[in-house]
UniProtKB/TrEMBL annotation:
<dbReference type="GO" id="GO:0050380">
    <property type="term" value="F:undecaprenyl-diphosphatase activity"/>
</dbReference>
<dbReference type="InterPro" id="IPR033879">
    <property type="entry name" value="UPP_Pase"/>
</dbReference>
<dbReference type="InterPro" id="IPR036938">
    <property type="entry name" value="PAP2/HPO_sf"/>
</dbReference>
<protein>
    <recommendedName>
        <fullName>undecaprenyl-diphosphate phosphatase</fullName>
        <ecNumber>3.6.1.27</ecNumber>
    </recommendedName>
</protein>
<feature type="transmembrane region" description="Helical">
    <location>
        <begin position="59"/>
        <end position="82"/>
    </location>
</feature>
<keyword id="KW-0472">Membrane</keyword>
<dbReference type="InterPro" id="IPR000326">
    <property type="entry name" value="PAP2/HPO"/>
</dbReference>
<dbReference type="Pfam" id="PF01569">
    <property type="entry name" value="PAP2"/>
</dbReference>
<feature type="transmembrane region" description="Helical">
    <location>
        <begin position="153"/>
        <end position="171"/>
    </location>
</feature>
<feature type="domain" description="Phosphatidic acid phosphatase type 2/haloperoxidase">
    <location>
        <begin position="63"/>
        <end position="168"/>
    </location>
</feature>
<feature type="transmembrane region" description="Helical">
    <location>
        <begin position="20"/>
        <end position="47"/>
    </location>
</feature>
<feature type="transmembrane region" description="Helical">
    <location>
        <begin position="129"/>
        <end position="147"/>
    </location>
</feature>
<dbReference type="GO" id="GO:0005886">
    <property type="term" value="C:plasma membrane"/>
</dbReference>
<keyword id="KW-1133">Transmembrane helix</keyword>
<keyword id="KW-0812">Transmembrane</keyword>
Length: 201
């Protein structure tokens, strides 16, 4: 498995001769594209059609729970199965600065794939598919720039699956009370913006 991981990494990894525009695009994907996750979560809670707002907020909370589970699982796996990054063992080319901490599973991969799977399961197939495509772009970029292995990204995807599974199970236990408490807290904190019509009630 390690030999396959290394071979795939070297096949994807950029070199000093790679096109500058492609490296710049990869850096944008690797560093900035992940911001779509918090952006979507905030936007779906604050705005939307009145008749769909309740469904959107359920989606936001279920996605948030899935992310908490997934990141906790990823943290545990990182402790149990420490794996050096490619540049830490002198393999390939590193084109994006990064500390030489453990690489498995990818935190970026875990976050974007968890969000994508959540949207695929609990929102719309098209939105989940779009986020999965963004996840693939982020995964490719971080391998291309030499800071992750392909299996780090596969691990992030599988952990995302577990996060969504646990979230679905947890929602049946405490989902409705959590929604009520979060909605009450939101209305208390955002009372002025709600009254002015800047955000939804």
């Amino acid at each position: 498995m390690e030999s396959l991981n290394s071979a795939l990494f070297l096949w994807i990894n950029a070199t000093p001769h790679s096109p500058h525009w492609l490296v710049a695009l990869a850096i944008f994907f690797a560093r900035d594209l992940i911001a779509i996750v918090p952006g979507l979560i905030i936007a779906l809670w604050l705005w939307g059609p009145r008749d769909e707002l309740g469904v959107q907020r359920v989606l936001v909370l279920k996605t948030g729970i899935a992310l908490i589970y997934a990141m906790a699982i990823a943290w545990c796996l990182g402790l149990l199965f420490p794996h050096p990054r490619p540049f830490a063992i002198g393999l390939g080319y590193q084109l994006l600065p990064h500390i030489a901490n453990g690489s498995y599973p990818s935190d970026h991969g875990t976050a974007i794939f968890t969000c994508a799977l959540a949207f695929f399961c609990w929102h719309r197939r098209w939105s989940g598919t779009l986020l999965l495509a963004i996840g693939v772009a982020i995964a490719w970029s971080r391998i291309y720039l030499g800071i992750h292995w392909p299996l780090d990204m596969l691990g992030g995807f599988l952990v995302g699956c577990l996060g969504c599974l646990f979230s679905q199970m947890a929602w049946k236990l405490y989902g409705d009370p959590l929604l009520l408490h979060c909605a009450s807290l939101y209305r208390l904190i955002f009372a002025i913006p709600i009254r002015k019509g800047w955000v939804r009630n």
